[in-house]
Amino acid sequence: MSGPRVRFAPSPTGYFHVGSARSALFNWFVARQDPEGVFILRVEDTDESRNREEWVEGIYSAMNWLGLTLDEGPFRQSDNAAAHDSAAQLLRRSGYLYYCDCTFAELETRKGPGATPGYDGFCRERGLERGPTTALRFRTPREGVTIVRDLIRGDVEFVNNLIDDFVVVKSSGAVLYALANVTDDRHDRITHVIRGEEHLANAPKQMMLWEALNAATGDEVALAFYAHLPLLVNEQRKKLSKRKDPVATESYRDQGYLPEAFVNYLALLGWSPRGDEEIVALSTLIEQFRLADVSHSPAFFDVKKLTHMNGEYLRALSLDEFIDRSAPWVAPWSSAWQPSDREPPWREDQFDQHLYGLVAHLVQERVATFAEIPSMVAFFFLDEPTLDEASFAKVIVNDPLGRDLLRGAVQRFERLASWDAASLHDATLALGEEMGLALRKSQAPIRCAVTGSLVGPPLFESLELLGREKTLRRLRVALERV
RNA sequence: GGUCCCAUCGUCUAGUGGCCUAGGACAUCACCCUCUCAAGGUGGAGGCACGGGUUCGAAUCCCGUUGGGACUGCCA
C-alpha cells in the first residue's frame, strides 16, 4: 500500500490567493505526514484567457517562498490536452456524452422567465452529430443519488436528477475544467482531492465523470477521497474577494512577513494544533494535522493576528538572522531578491551596514514586519532626520521649555567626557531635574530634534550610535529653526 | 428561486454526553514595568443563535426556526 497522492491545482490568476496558499498547505501536510506521500502541483491553465507565463511563474515563486516542496511536477494541464480530447471522444462513443446545439437564448425561451437555472436536456435524445456550434454534454443519470464521501464533512448526498446535463466540451472543441481535471486526477492516481468548499457542488459531477471514465476505459482507478475546506471570508463574511480584500500572498511577502509565520497562521485557519499553544513548529503542524479535524465553518483571515504572530517569529530570530533576513528591505542592492515598491528612504552610499548591525537589536523587538524597519532607523542614515512637523511644533516651537532643554543639551553633550548611552542618560536626567522635569519630559525635544519623531528606538543608545558630531549638529539645526 | 454547506467570546478556535460556574490566542480595557514607542508581566470584560425533543445529565445527539455562506458558466 503506497502513500497518499495529493495535488494542488491552481489556475493562474495573476497572483497567489491566500486561500490557495492554505489549500496548497493542507494538501502538502497530508503528503508530508506519510513517508510515501506525494505532493503534486498541476497548473490548470486550460482557459486561454488565464494563461500568462508570468502568472504561472508567480505560482512557482509563491510556493517556493512558502516552502511547499513538490514530489512530482510542476505539471501544466494544457500539456495533457490530447489526453483530454481522447477522453472526451471515448466518453462520447460510449454514450456518456451527447452533442447539443442549444444557444443560451433558445434555452431561455423554452424555460420561460424565472425558471430553475440549468440545462433542460432538450438535445439529450436528438442524436445530433458534431457540428460547428455543437457542445458535448454529459448525460446525467435521471435516477439515484450520488454520495460524496467528504473526509471533512461526512457524506453529502446529491439527487442525480437535480444535476443538469453539464457541458464537458465547448463548441470550440476545448475540453472544460470538469473533465480535464478528472482526467488528470485519474492519470496522476490522485487519492485525495483537497480543495475549497466552493468545489463541493462540482464533486458529484466529477465522480460521475470519474466512474464513466473507469467504465469506458476499462481502467478501474479508485475514486479519490474528497475533502472540502471551509472558505476564507472577509469581515462581511463573504468569500475573500480579489477586488476589496488583501488576498495576494505576494503582498505579504513584500511587506516582510516571514514564510514560517505565514504558514503557521494559515494552518490555524480551519484547524488548530493540540494544546494551548498556537505558535508551533512546522514539524508539529505536519505531525498533528488531520483532515477529519478541520472545521466546517468559514474562517476570517485576520491580518492583525497574522501580524502579531509575525512579530513573535521576528523576535524569536537570532540577531544575525534578523539582520540577514531584513536585508531586502534595508539594503536591497545587496540582496538577491527585492520586495516590490519597498525602497528604503536612503541611498546605498548613505547606508552603513556596520551601524545597522549595531542598531538592529533596538528595532527587532519593535517591529512586526520587516517593512516597518526603514522608517524606524532612517534617521541613522539620512543626512537630516525627516521631521514630523506636528511633533516638532508641540515640543519645541510651542513649548519654551523645549528650547531651553535643547540649549542645555547642547552645552552638556559638548562637554561629556564619555559619549555613551549611560552618560547621555545621566546628562539629560540632570538637565531635566534642574528644570523640575521628569526624564520622560526632558528627553522629548531632544528625541524630536535628533530623530525627527517622538517615537522610536531608545534615545540614548541611538545617540551613542549616531555619534557626538551628528547629534550636536541636529540639536543646533533644530534650535535655528525655531 | 433551486441544490448544498455552516452556526462556541468582536475574530480564529478547544470542546466528540458528565472533567464546562465553557479553555487558549488575536483584538480590546485597566494596572505594572518604562527615556518615547514597542515588547513583556498581571488582571478584567466578552460566547455555546433560538425553540422543541432524547437523556439521570447536553455546547456536545435529533427535529424545527432563524441567520450566514457557496454553487447555480460553452470559467477554474
Portion of residues within helices: 40-55%
The biggest sheet, with number of strands, parallel, antiparallel or mixed sense and barrel status, is: 3 strands, parallel
Determine Rg (CA atoms, Å): 31 Å
Provide mean pLDDT, rounded. 94
Q: How do the strands line up in the largest sheet?
A: 1-2-3
CATH architecture of the domain at 389-481, please? Orthogonal Bundle
- Give the CATH topology of the domain at 389-481: Arc Repressor Mutant, subunit A
Number of distinct beta strands: 12
Q: Which structural class do the helices and strands define?
A: mainly alpha
Shape summary: elongated
The end-to-end distance, rounded to whole angstroms, is 80 Å
CATH class call of the domain at 389-481: Mainly Alpha
What is the count of DSSP helices, taking H or I runs of 4+ residues?
Answer: 20
How would you characterize the overall build of this protein?
The chain is mainly α and 482 residues long. The chain has a domain of 93 residues: Arc Repressor Mutant, subunit A. The protein has a 3-stranded parallel β-sheet with strand order 1-2-3. A 3-stranded antiparallel β-sheet has the order 4-5-8. Strand 2, helix 2 and strand 3 form a beta-alpha-beta unit. The radius of gyration is 31 Å and the shape is elongated. It starts with a strand and ends with a helix. The structure holds one RNA strand of 76 nucleotides.
